[in-house]
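note to self: the first set is below, dont mix up w the second
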Amino acid sequence: MDQQLSLNGKVFTSWKYDEKTWFITASNGTLYLYLLEGDDYTLLIDTAYGFGNLREYVETLTDKPVLVALTHGHLDHSGGAAEWEKVYMHKNAPVDMPNDGNQFNLPYPDYERVFVGEGDVIDLGGRRIEVIEITAHSNGSIALLDASHKLIFSGDELESMQVIMMNLDKDPDYDYEARIKAHRANMLKLKARLEEFDSICPAHNGAPIARSYIDDFIELNDRILAGKAIVEDKLNHLFFDSSPMGEGLCRVRWNKASFFSARSDVEKFLKNQ
C-alpha cells in the first residue's frame, strides 16, 4: 500500500518494491530516493532538497538505524544530508554541494562526511551494498550495487528520459569529450556486472528500468565520439522547454538513450571530428 505523509506542507510518497526495499518519491514524484533494509541497518540513498523532514518520514518506514549515502552532491540529492549525523559519499561529491550547505537550517550542519570509493561495501547485515564509481554527469558520482536483491542504484548517471551532460557547476576546466568518454567507460563497467542485477533504479523519471538502457547509452556515446550523433532542437521536457535553463540546450539521442547538453559544447565537439 502506498504511504503518504505531509510534513511542513510537503509530501513524500513511498511503496515497497520487495519486503525490504522501499521506493520513495519527492518533488511531486520527479525525484526517487531508496530505502534498503538489512538485518542490522537500513540504508537511505539520497536525501532530496532538504525540506519536508525526510528523516521523520523515513523513520515511519523502518525501526532499524538509518545509514545515509549520496549518489552525488547536487542539491536535489544532498540537500537533506544535514538531517543526519553521518553521510557516505564520493570524495568529490562536496564539490557540487550548495555553498551554504544547509539552506533549511537542518539539525546537523557539520555532519560527518565518510568518503567511499570503488569496491567499498556498506554492510547492512545480511545485505551488502557495493560502491561503484561512475563519475561523468557530476564530479563525484557513485552507483550502489545490491547484488542480493539484484538491483543497482545509478543516481543521475543512467535513466530513462535523459542524462544531463553539461557544465552544471560552471567548472572552468569542463571537458565535454572527456565526460562523454568517462560515461562510456562507466556504462561498460556496469555492463560487465550485468549478471549481478536485473533492474536499474535511477534518481529521476521512473524506476526500475531495463538493463538494455546500458547498451543504448554505450551506442549513444560511441556515436557522439564518432561525430554521428542525432542532435534534436526540441527538448520535449516540460520544465526545460518552459524555463530559461533550457535555452541553448539540445537533446542528443540514440534509441532510448539521450543526453541534454549545451548546444555550443556539442557543435564545438562535432566540428572537430
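second set (the one i keep forgetting abt)
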Amino acid sequence: IEEARQQLGYLNTTLSALRFGGERFEFITRPEPSLRQVYDLIMDSQAVLGASLFDSDFRQRHQQGWDLLFERLTTGTVASMEDAVQELRELQDYRNYLQYDIRIHYPNGDRALLSQISAKKSGGETTTPFYVAMAASFAQAYRLTQPRQADTIRLALFDEAFGKMDTARTASALQFMVDSQLQVLLATPPDKAAGLLPHVDSVRTVVRKNNHSFVIEIDKSEMLKQLEADAEPA
C-alpha cells in the first residue's frame, strides 16, 4: 500500500508541471470503505513488531478489523476451496484496500473529482484523464516509478490516439508519457497526424495497394515546412 502511494507520488510530481487545456491532474487515494477496518489494522501493525498481537493494545484498538479479517478467512459460507482461495487473494491484494481517483485542478482555483464529473463533461475533457491513467498504468507495469527501474522496452501503443482532444491537451498528454519514460507508438488517421507532428520524433505512413501494405518513412522537417507554407496567407 505504501509502495502504491509512493508510485502515485512520483507520477504526481511529473503531473504537477503539466497543464491540460489549463487544467492540472493529480492522482489521489483513500481507503476502501468495505475494508477500512482491516486497512487500519494493517497500517498500524508496524507499531507492534516484536510484541504479541494478542496481548498488546493493538488488538484492542483494532478489534473490529481483527474480527472482520478472521471472519472472512474462516467463514462457514465458503462453498468450495476455489472460493476460499479467491477470498484469500482479495485480502492479500493491496489494490483492494484503496480507492483511486483523479483530482482536477482548474485555472480559477476550483477542484473536482473525475469520478463525480465524468458523465457531465465533453469527450475531450474525459479522454484526457484516460490517457493520463493509461500512461500511469504503463509506468507501473514497466516498474518505471521504482528506485531501481526494470530494464524493459517501455513500449506504449495507442491506436487512433487523441482523436477527441485539442492540440494543447494532446501535447501535454504526450509530454507526460515522455516524462514517464515511455516509448510511445501512435497510430492515427492522416487527417489527425498534422496536429501530432510537432510532438513526435519520427513519422511513418502505411499505404495499402492491391492487398499489399507498404511502410514509407516521412521526413518530419519537410512535412512541417509544408504545413507552415500551407498555413501562410496567399
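remember for set 2: The two ends are 60 Å apart (CA to CA).
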